[in-house]
Design a protein that fits this description.
- The chain is mostly helical.
- The chain is rod-shaped.
- It contains four helices and no strands.
- Helices cover about 65% and strands about 0% of the residues.
Length: about 160
Amino acid sequence: MIRRVPAKHRNARIAREKDTEALLRLGLLLFVGLGLTCGFVYAGRQHFAALRFGYETETLRRERDQLSEQQRRLILQREEAASPGKLEQAAKRLGMQPLQAAQIDPLRQAANSAKDNATIQSKDNTAKPNTKPGTKTIRKVPAPVLTKPSGKKPI
């Protein structure tokens, strides 16, 4: 290989021109790249937020289903406790007695109440002449019936 330039020959300094268009292209490329990157990051956050809300919605849906099932069970228990058979058993535990036929007949009740009012008025008139006619005087206050609580809790 042949050398055309001597080894001790110094090259002249070359002055480079500044390319302003290249700097503008690089700045524009950087700006577009940052915008694109920010868009991807924003879309990623939105995607993961949507996933999180989806899981939360599913959890809340399961909880709602459990609560509605519990509500159905409680309504069923309430209806069962309010059934006539259960109410009759609870009334017997409290010392109540079944309804008598005489308590239902309205004609008999009217006759009994008129007879009771007449006897009360006659007793009142003989006992206290100072009282106004038609007023009732209670002679004896009935004592409340105390029952022993059972071991079972009433519903």
